[in-house]
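Sequence only, no structure available. Ideas?
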Amino acid sequence: MKINDTQRIGAYRTYQQQSDTRTSQTTGNRRKDEVQFSAEAMELLGAQRSEDPNRAERIETLKNELSSGTYKVDSGELVEKLLPFFRPVASKE
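Reply:
I predicted one. Tokens follow.
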């Protein structure tokens, strides 16, 4: 009968040594995360902002209507916009 399993203690020590090594290596050379946007992305972002001057006002109006519970969806208009996605595609024979 084995009461003490020495392999587990050895495995813990190995893990601890590796952890200490990683910690000592990364303390001095920490890099910060960076995000870079391409020129095309910046162009699209600028075009989106300048597209509709009343967009911000419209968004605020919609937010207010949603929060107060007065926003109503026109079901006919919704169906018209969704219909092209549900029409069967004619086969090209």
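The CA atoms of residues 23 and 30 lie 11 Å apart.
Hope that gets you unstuck.
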